[in-house]
Amino acid sequence: MEEKKTLDLFALASVPLIMTLGNSMLIPVLPVIEKTLNISSFQVSMIITVYSIVAILLIPIAGYLSDRFGRKKVIIPSLLLAAIGGAITGFASWKMENPYLFILVGRVIQGIGSAGAMPVVIPCVGDLFKNEDEVTKGLGLIETANTFGKVLSPILGAFLASFIWFLPFWFIPLLCAISIVLVLFFVKTPKKKDQEVQEFAEFARNVKATLKKNLRWLLAIFLLGGIIMFVLFGILFYLSTILEERHGIYGTKKGLVMAIPLLALSISSFVAGKKLGENKQVMKWTIFVGFLLLAGAFIFLFFNMSLVFLLSALVVGGIGIGAALPSLDALITEGIEKEERGTITSLYSSMRFVGVAAGPPVYALLIKMSDQAVFHTSIYSSLVGVIVVWFAVKPGKETKKVAPKVKKAPV
Q: Major facilitator superfamily (MFS) profile domain: which residues (predicted)?
């Protein structure tokens, strides 16, 4: 990897790390919030869901803005908004007797910020390198930072909440400030050539042409990203709930237990990003095996539900998720022209957030039904992913650069 780009990558990696911490570190705290505010499990799951719903709606807009005006000009204000949202949730929890609605308002603002931060990092990495192998390695580092944030988040969230339940909210502005400084001073995105900026109508025509030419495999990647996040965040919500209710594990100890499968996910993501290279067939089959591992992990839980067996199964599933994510990122980033890369990858990020939004409330309802309902849903969702990879992802035929741009009609 080009040495001069190392600082750029590590600064960019701080964005998914911090955005993941700002969301995922609340998961182990949700049962505490539920009891403290005297709300239902569905209501508390909405603290995660509203954040994600807002991000889903605004990510495509952020992607377009980053294509038109530049990545950093979108990332930095977005981090500032995320910090403001975190401060609102923290202040409301501290000063108000019934802060639930204001917590949701703060989470909405935080979601707006997240829409323009983490998803824009993926096309930014694609802009930094010309060599596809370097892009793949860079995206592997970004996904590793993302997954490491998931490893650290339950430990950090539970640790902070052990002092004051709303302390994780206050930690979000601090983390965002760190990321703003890193991106501002260390990320040097390539300057645009001296040429006329695309008008929106022309840009829209080009995006439409890109989608039309690549619709099958793009929809497949979008769907796979949504499924993998749905299962991941759903099962994390499930694990957080049963560790307290059935096993009496609370606080930092619970965070450490939750970090075990997430550590496997992080290591798997790091290794996959390093080893994938430019071979898109390898990427396809890595995704395929990843979804198979995820489905298979839950099958064994029908025979043994002990905590050790549950964690072992989730470690296997985490390895599958970690292997699949860098391949998904690389396929969509390397298969799209730079001019539309921000917009197209933002649609992929939106689908990932659909999974993040749907997972906790759906699994909250499934938990009330039975453990088997949780496992069946996870298995069937993962098997859908297996089928989609097999039939719809055809790297040799479809994941190629788009044909020449649609030109503006003469005036």
A: 8-397
Residue 139 domain-assigned (yes or no): yes
Among candidates 57, 62, 64, 53, which has minimal Cα distance to 15? 62
> How confident is the model over 174-205, as pLDDT tens digits?
999 999 999 999 888 766 554 445 566 666 77
Contact 238, 363 (CB under 8 A): yes
Spatial contact of 223 and 380, defined as CB atoms under 8 Å apart: no
Domain span at 358 = 3-187+197-398
Residue 405, domain member (yes or no): no
Residue 403: inside a domain? no
CATH code for position 330: 1.20.1250.20
The two tokens of residue 310 are 């549950």
* 277 Rama sector, left if φ>0, alpha if ψ -120 to 50, beta otherwise: left
Q: Specify the pTM.
A: 0.78
- pLDDT at residue 405 tops 60: no
Residue 212 has a CB neighbour count (10 Å cut-off) of 9
- pLDDT tens per residue across span 108-144: 999 999 888 877 888 888 888 777 778 778 887 887 8
Token pair belonging to 4 = 């001069």
